[in-house]
Design goal:
about 190 residues; mainly alpha
């Protein structure tokens, strides 16, 4: 397993984690209500940001779990000859367990963002997929667990240390989002 490919996947998981954290801070009900005035004053910015973060989440999720062998993905790294067979089996089993969930986000990526299914409106596809913050969190947790195990196996970092780093980066993204919202709210007074 090439360390550079694992590093690339670590960076993609960090981006997924930060995107989710910022998106959640912007759409979570208590924040949504608390900062309604700020969002109203900057509607185009926040609508575009929320949409872009969700779109990015769908695309990065697809990239991370893509099965095609001509791409760099967690699946490809897991199935490489240099990954320990026991670890590969454990990680593949963990991903396979979440395939129904992954298929939901893949459908959104494939039919709305990657390509446009002209036979159906995006709203119908979103409703059919039934994505929710908790399902998105499950995808994020899976990606983080898998990439941390691969990184440890490749000798890049311990699983525990890398998990802490990813969670810290997510925390900082959440805190920065709140700070920006609060600052914009104070300026509007």
């Amino acid at each position: 397993m090439h360390q550079s490919a694992v590093r690339e996947m670590v960076e993609r998981v960090i981006e997924l984690s930060r995107s989710y954290a910022i998106w959640w801070e912007l759409v979570e009900k208590s924040n949504f209500d608390q900062f309604a005035r700020v969002r109203g004053n900057h509607k185009d910015f926040f609508d575009a940001t929320i949409h872009s973060l969700f779109q990015g989440f769908a695309i990065i999720s697809y990239q991370l779990f893509d099965k095609r062998t001509d791409s760099t993905s967690l699946r490809v790294l897991i199935n490489s000859k240099s990954t320990d067979s026991v670890l590969a089996r454990q990680l593949n089993d963990a991903i396979d367990l979440k395939l129904p969930l992954l298929k939901k986000v893949f459908a959104i990526r494939n039919k709305v963002y990657g390509h446009r299914d002209k036979s159906r409106l995006p709203e119908a596809l979103f409703e059919e997929a039934g994505m929710s913050p908790s399902l998105m969190r499950e995808i994020l947790d899976l990606a983080r667990d898998v990439v941390c195990a691969l990184a440890e196996s490749a000798g890049l970092d311990t699983k525990a240390d890398l998990e802490k780093e990813i969670l810290w980066r997510e925390k900082y993204a959440r805190e920065d989002t709140r700070l920006i919202m609060q600052t914009l709210g104070e300026q509007a007074i």
